[in-house]
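chain below, 68 aa
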Amino acid sequence: MIQHAGYYTSTQVTKPLHTDHMDCLIERLFKKGIELRFTPNLYPLREAILQSDFKEFGIHRFSNAMEL
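prediction:
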């Protein structure tokens, strides 16, 4: 395994031992008091964080984001 910014990437194909089906995920988040926000564009957030003094930052798979 390769360590990156606090997460690990496997160099081998892995298969799950089992899967759990979960319904109503957004509702479950709300019931736990979690605030959920949606944004059409992650670039302003990314740039603000990069300009800040926050150094432990990772935005995984940002290269897949589409600029509008």
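The first strand starts at residue 2 and ends at 4. The chain has a mean pLDDT of 82.
thats it, cya
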